[in-house]
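Dear Dr. L.,

I hope this message finds you well. Following up on our conversation about the binding site, I have prepared a predicted three-dimensional model of the protein together with manganese (II) ion. For your records, I am including the exact sequence and ligand specification that went into the calculation, followed by the C-alpha cells. Please feel free to forward this to your student if that is useful.
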Amino acid sequence: MIISMKKAATPEQIDHVKQLIEEFGYRVHESRGSERVVFGAIGDERGKERLTCLEAQPGVEKVIRILAPYKLACRETKPEPTLIDLGLGVRVGNGKLLVIAGPCAVESQEQIMTVAESIKHSGAHMLRGGAFKPRTSPYAFQGLRNDGLVLLAEAREKYGLPVITEVMDIAGIEVISEYADCLQVGARNIQNFQLLKEVGKTNKPVLLKRGLSTTIEEFLMSAEYVLSGGNSNVILCERGIRTFETATRNTLDISAVPVLKEKTHLPVIVDPSHGTGHARYVEPMAFAAIAAGADGLMIEVHPRPEEALSDGPQSLRPNEFEKLMEGIRRIAAAVGREV
Ligand code: PEP
Ligand code: MN
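The resulting structure of the complex is given below.
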C-alpha cells in the first residue's frame, strides 16, 4: 500500500503517520520527492484495512493499493526518477545519457589501458570490463579474476572513469566492491535470488542485466530483491532476449525501454552489443535505444576485436566507437537529450 501525504502536511503529521504504519506491523519505505512525502507500507497485504483507515489521518492525501508485485520498484511508490551516483561525478537517471564502454573482458594491461584512453577521449563516462566471466564453455577464457580487478582500478585512476564489472557469485561481492563503482549482475544470474539479496545489502550501485528468458515482470521482481535488501541504487539493462530468430545473437527488445520506464522509476539502459552480437548492428540499435527513451548505453569496445578472448564479433574498434559517439550526440540532440 502507498500512503501519499498532502503537499502541505506538517513534519509532525508525517512522523505520526510513519509511526502508525510501523505500529500496524509494516516496514516503511519513505520517498521524499520535491513536492510531497510518499510512504510505502511493505508487509502482509491481509492487514490492509488498517492502512486504508489512515486516509482519515490529518495530512494524508490518499491511500492507494499497489497492484504490481514489485512494490518498491513501481512508479506508484516513487513517481520521480531515481538518480544514481556512480562515482567520480558520473550519474544516471538525471535525464543525461550515460555511456558505458569497454571490453567484454579485461585481457591485459595494454588492452584495458588502450580502451580506457580511447573511450575517455571519445566522451564515454564509465569503463566496463569483465574480470570474472560467465562463459557457456568451461574451456573458454574465464577472465583474469583478481588481476583483472587491479587493472580496472589502475585504468580508473589514470583516466578518471568509474568502473563497472560483473559479480558472478556471493563470494566475489566483497573483493569486487573494493575495486568497482558498480556491481553488474549478468543475464545468467538475474534470478539468482541469493546473489540478489546479498548485493541488496551493499551500498554499491547495481546494474541488473535482463535474463535470456526473463519477462519484464520477472526482471522487475529481481530489482525488487535488491531494493528490498535496502539498496536503492539499481539500474536495469535490456540486453536482448532469446527468441526463434538466429540472424542476431539475441533479439534486442527495444520496446522494453518504454514499458520499463512506464512501470518503474529506476534508470533503464540498453546494451546493443550483446543485444545483436554483431558490431555492424550496434550503431542502429544504439540510436533506436536513445530514441526509445533509454537513460544510457553499454557498448563493447576492443582495440583488436579479431584477437578478443570473448565477444570479438560484437566489439567496436576505438575509431568505430568514436564515430558512434558522434552519432549518439546527434540523435540525443534530436530528441532533446544531453550526453
Ligand atoms: C557482459 O556484459 O559481458 C555479459 C556477460 O553480459 P550478459 O550477462 O548480458 O550476457
Ligand atoms: Mn560480452
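In brief: The chain has a mean pLDDT of 96.

With kind regards,
A. P.
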